[in-house]
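Appendix B.2, paired examples.
Example (i):
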Amino acid sequence: MTATVDIITMKKKDVVAVPISAIVIKKMSEIDPETPEEDADKRQEAVFVMKDGKAELRAVQTGIQDNTNIEIISGVEKEDEIITGPYTLVSKNLKKGDKVVVKPK
């Protein structure tokens, strides 16, 4: 006999959350060129935000997650447009300053 269960350890309401695939791990120097040399190679969670039609990389602090979404504690605001897409496209191919176009779902 087998069973499948969901164990809910925490719930939050009215938070900023994004698809997990929108989160990228980048070197601090990629996020902020002004990063001190001793911190340049440290890794940081980040998201791409659309600003004036271009991709802007922002460091974020994440919180709880489920199977599809992850909470953003700091680094973006509710009105920011987060760039999402296939994980490889967002994490490997997209670069700061790339032009982006909003496509309806």
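Example (ii):
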Amino acid sequence: MFLRPRPNEKWHLDEVVIPILGKNHWLWRIIDADGDVLDILVQTRPKAKAAKRFLQRLITQFSDPRVVITAKLRSDIKPIETLAPDADHRAHKGMKNAIEGSHTPTRKPEKTFGRFKSHQQAHSFLSAHEPINLIFRPRRSKLSATSYRHGQADAFSLWADFASEMVA
């Protein structure tokens, strides 16, 4: 079984609008400083109550973050102040550049499959896609070329073993 590495203490809270059957839905993601997606939430409207439950679930699972970086949305400020009062909340447009590049793994399958057909399909696909993406996407900037190739070989071996177990 694959275990997620312990998340970094710096979290990026991000919202992305994704179209589902012609209507906009909000995809909320919390990503740690290493670029690992901790969890996602898909909802029809940007509801502060749902965002608060989403953040509470992550704090319960991983403990309080040291730093939380968000956009300058006012709806992000209150849940962070109440749920993680000791966290340093930073709301600045330029600080989110690292997280904006992580939209690519979300947008690529969305376009390949011809957009998502339902709220449930988007949530189930993206929540399964992120851990799988983590296996096949080692942090290349921190590895030598040889280590990267070994990591890729290990990932494909792990995936082949997993696929053979699922077929059997």
